[in-house]
Amino acid sequence: MTGRSGGARLATRAGLSAAVAVAAAGVEVATYPHWRPWCLHWGATTDEASRALPGDDLLTKPQVVTTRAIGIQAPARLIWPWLVQMGPGRGGAYTYDWIENLLGIYMHSANQILPRYQDLKVGDGQQLGPRGPVLRVAVLEPEHALVFRSDDGNWVWAFVIEPAGDFTRLISRNRIAASPSPLGRAATTYLMEPGSLIMERKMLIGIKERAERLAAAAAQPGAASGQD
């Protein structure tokens, strides 16, 4: 009896968990159109979200375009090195490493500028996990624009640094091609878009904190450079 009752309790809990998951998914699908613009354009101004940026011409008919941005109290020269060294087995992505590694992507977010990863060139590629896409540098304009394009042509990821008064703006834009299946398109909309916001928001904040820490250190006579 004890075994049967325990099994019944486990089955009941599993059923409740499934019901909660289905209900949560239903709520997201029903409400997402209302908060989707915020999800796609977190931190970006109307102008940043709407105007052309470097790399837009590399994927002209995307299913999804996200433009997210953040203001950083540091000059471009202290932001650029963090972008250049990004990647698995390099400087990481300054986001939730445990999530990246759970997905099979080797990420360890560096807290210092790593000189050995500062020689990035157009054509250099990096693979996001054993089965993930290969992102290759398509545009490299020092201290202004860094654009990656996947080898299959379905993803373009651009970083743009621009002055904005007392701040510097760091803009991140993703352009993603449409999935060939309705289920794939739905997964992109309802899973990938909100998930990418969670990761990218953390990444932008991580770059901001690191660059501003360098700027504060540079203002102190005799302070360390922040390089490793």
Briefly, what is this?
Helices cover 42% and strands 20% of the residues.
Task: Walk me through the topology.
Elements: H1 2-40, H2 46-50, E1 64-72, H3 76-84, H4 97-102, E2 125-127, E3 134-141, E4 145-150, E5 155-164, E6 167-176, H5 182-218
Antiparallel strand pairs: 1-6, 2-3, 3-4, 4-5, 5-6
Based on the coordinates given, report the CATH architecture of the largest domain: 2-Layer Sandwich
Give the helix/strand class: alpha+beta
By DSSP, the count of extended strands is 6
Principal-axis shape:
globular
Question: Could you characterize the architecture of this molecule?
Answer:
- The chain has 228 residues and is α+β, with helices and mostly antiparallel strands.
- The chain folds into 2 domains: 1-37; 41-218, START domain (Alpha-D-Glucose-1,6-Bisphosphate, Chain A, domain 4), CATH 3.30.530.
- 42% of the residues lie in helices and 20% in strands.
- The protein has 5 helices and 6 strands; from the N terminus they run ααβααβββββα.
- The chain has helices spanning 2-40, 46-50, 76-84, 97-102, 182-218, and strands at residues 64-72, 125-127, 134-141, 145-150, 155-164, 167-176.
- Strands 1-6-5-4-3-2 form a 6-stranded antiparallel sheet, covered by helices on one side.
- Strand 5 and strand 6 (167-176) form a beta hairpin.
- Helix 1 crosses helix 5 (182-218) and helix 3 packs across helix 5 (182-218).
- The longest helix is centred in the N-terminal third of the chain and has 39 residues, at 2-40.
- The radius of gyration is 21 Å and the shape is globular.
- The protein starts with a helix and ends in a 10-residue tail after the last helix.
- The model is unreliable at 14-28 (pLDDT under 50).
